[in-house]
Amino acid sequence: MLITVVTVTHNSEDVIRDALRCVCAHPRVASCIVVDNASTDSTVSLIRSEFPAVKLLQNRENTGYGVACNQALEQVGTGLALLMNPDAVIDAAGIDRLAESFSAFPDAAIIAPYMSGQGEHQHFAAIKKIRHGVAGNAVPVPFISGAIAMWRMDCMKKVGFFDPAFFMFYEDDDISIRTRMAGYRLLAMKGINVRHVPGRSCKITEALQSMKLRSSTWSRLYITAKYRGAAVARMAALFLIARHWLALRGTDNRSALQKKQLESVLADIDAKWKAHKEGIDEGLAAATGKHYEKLTAAIAKRNARWSETEAELDRQWKAAQEKHQEGIRHEQDAFEEQWQQRIKHGENTDPVQLGEHERRWKEAMSQHQELWGSLVQRHEQARRETAGRHEQEWAAIEKELREELAGVSAAHDGRIAAEARHYEEWRMIIQKRSEELLPGINTKREREDILWAARSFLRNPRQYTNDAT
Q1: H/E element holding 9?
Q2: Tell me, which fold does domain 3-196 have in CATH?
Q3: Is the separation of the CB atoms in 241 and 453 below 8 Å?
Q4: Stated pTM of the model
């Protein structure tokens, strides 16, 4: 069966590109419908320029998720609809698996990727877990998250789409309950590659946070009334009003004390982490100091060895130079003695013989000069080779020492990163657990929003009004 993709946006320019890119080109996807709830950023222009094939419906005001989603669902003409938040991404294989699963489970109306917490939603505690068998990777669940899910449209048209009374939050709880009450199953498929970061569908602002808290409070009371009765919901609203009104009047000092206690615990954790990190840094400083001491000793040893080598080369050069000079003097004396002997014995000393003697003397001197040049070349070659060996040895030593220092630094950074993660996890666990155990840790603005939502529900328990007054 072909698929229609349905997405609702509101100031979603940071995430909508990835969401549409992963589904628009899929061969099973017949069309993509995006309903924009009065975005003030570049969401609309981005979709029009980069995804011209997408059908874009624009609302002049933010009608809420359920109403906007129903606008798109009314125009779906395919057998399946893939509902996904703009901050969700699914790969092509995941889309295929969801679509193909409906053939294997004809009684399933909604199938979604299995995500952490799927089927154990805490919004509506009255839902009890269904305990059926598991076929393959399909897990029967009592609740399907609205982040990303595939609907069988012929079934969901019988169930009905989202309740328009919900502005935001709990509409997925409600549709899950109604689908099961109609006799259909909800399935979560394991092993599907999905990326979803809750809360990134639109840019977070103080006004948006306030609207989310008001909407979630009102929707919780509404779904309570819908499935537990109006009296229970009214009592819950009155309790919220009394609790937060007293807190704002200063009568309820418990939350302030609990908040101070939590802040004290977290401050103590921060101080201990700071001291622990300083200890690790001191360990790095000590290890680095030892490394530099080792490096300094290696440099001193290298310089001493080079000095000894230079001295030995100079000694060898001086000896060769003296030997060469001695050879020249010996040759000169031999020539002189030979010439004097010839004069003494009265041998002919005409200019020709004198010239021959001078020629032989010059040849001898030329041979000595060539020998001297050869000696100089050999000496310079030996000096260069020795210097090259020293440089190679030093490069190897320096590389080893630098790698050792890099290893020490990397180990330190790794330890800091690992322990920092543990610290953050520990801090978050303590903070989350403390907030669960110590109720009422709310800011003044949050209490005012909860009061507004509870009073709004008592005035009109059938329809949420997105009104800031």
Answers
A1: strand 3-9
A2: Spore Coat Polysaccharide Biosynthesis Protein SpsA; Chain A (3.90.550)
A3: no
A4: 0.57
In the chain, which stretches have pLDDT less than 50? 116-135, 251, 436-441, 468-469
DSSP string, 23-80: HHT-TTEEEEEEEEE---SSHHHHHHHH-TTSEEEEESS---HHHHHHHHHTT--SSE
| Distance in angstroms (rounded) separating the CA atoms of residues 246 and 442 | 13
- Residue 437, pLDDT score: 46
∠ at Cα 249 (244, 254), nearest 5°?
A: 65
DSSP 166-205: -SSSSHHHHHHHHHHHTT-EEEEETT--EEE-TT-SS---
What pLDDT was estimated at residue 127?
35
Q: Is 88 helix (H, G, I), strand (E, B) or coil?
A: strand
The two three-digit tokens of residue 369, written as one number:
């000069």
pLDDT of amino acid 370: 74
| Rounded (5°) CA angle 126-132-133 | 155
> What was the pLDDT predicted at 258?
59
Nearest residue to 70 via CA among 152, 162, 157, 6: 162
Q: Which residues of 243-280 are buried (b: 16+ CB within 10 A; e: fewer)?
A: bbbebeeeebeebeebbeebeeeeeeeeeebeeeeeee
CB contact set of 458 (below 8 Å; sequence gap of 6+): 234, 237, 238, 241
Question: Which 8-state DSSP code applies to residue 82?
Answer: E
Residue 401 has phi, psi (to 5 degrees) of -70, -40
Contact (Cβ atoms closer than 8 angstroms) between residue 452 and residue 245? no
Strands 29-37 and 138-140: unpaired
- How far is C-alpha 119 from the geometric centre of its chain's CA atoms? 28
Average pLDDT, the chain: 78
| Torsion sign (Cα): 441, 443, 444, 446 | negative
Residue of 173, 159, 179 lying closest to 222 (CA atoms) = 173
Residue 118 in contact with residue 112, Cβ under 8 Å? Answer: yes
- The rounded distance, in Å, linking the Cα atoms of 337 and 233 is 135
H or E element: which one contains 234? helix 230-249
Domain borders along the chain are 3-196, 206-265+437-459
Q: Is the dihedral of CA 168, 170, 173, 179 positive or negative?
A: negative
What is the secondary structure of 264-299 as a DSSP string? Answer: HHHHHHHHHHHHHHHHHHHHHHHHHHHHHHHHHHHH
Q: Which of 117, 114, 61, 70 is nearest to 90 (CA)?
A: 114
Residues paired with 80 in a beta bridge: 3, 152
3-state secondary structure at position 17: helix
